[in-house]
Amino acid sequence: MQRVALIDYGSGNLRSAEKALVRAADGRAEIVVTHDPGFIAAADRVVLPGVGAFAACMGALEARTGVVEAMTQAVRTRGVPFLGICVGMQLMATRGLEFGETAGLDWIAGDVRRIEPDDPAAKVPHMGWNALLDVIDHPVFRGLKDGRPVYFTHSFAFFAKDPADVAAYVDHGGRFPAAVARGNMAGVQFHPEKSQGAGLSLLADFLEWRP
Known about the structure:
GATASE, 13 strands, Rossmann fold, nine-stranded mixed beta sheet, Imidazole glycerol phosphate synthase subunit HisH, about 25% helix, alpha/beta, hydrolase, four-stranded mixed beta sheet
């Protein structure tokens, strides 16, 4: 049975992400909440959750001794499938521009910056259900067709340097990326664990993904 490392660095959505992954796995994978570098480096898949400010989350991740190095070994060297959720997706970026500049993992080039809707009726934070747009043809996103609503709660978004790395968009007073994908890595700005059937579909597809 494949082992999935769900990274524990104190993220507020850790337990809800765990429950959703366990449900999506339906006994086909072992979901392990962990910050053990040895387990992470040898895992079959890695999931990084996250809520809150970029700098605080990056600092908390780096404070777990050996975790960033183990994630890099698993994802970048061994090429195991990776999924970043909300701030977990944002941490894949080159840098975050919240409360100054903070270096990210730099796995996909780009910046995390505050969303600035053109429509004054579009409030920030962006909270609630919103439809995905221009979803790419990709194994992880095959159940998320254009127009399918998912649940967001955020004020910042990951603006990838290369548009080819964007897997889906959303419109909240203006378009911005809702998901990214490159090679064995994928990330979503929305919360699969709060997105009901759409979220479970994405997690199940991630667990079956063979990049």
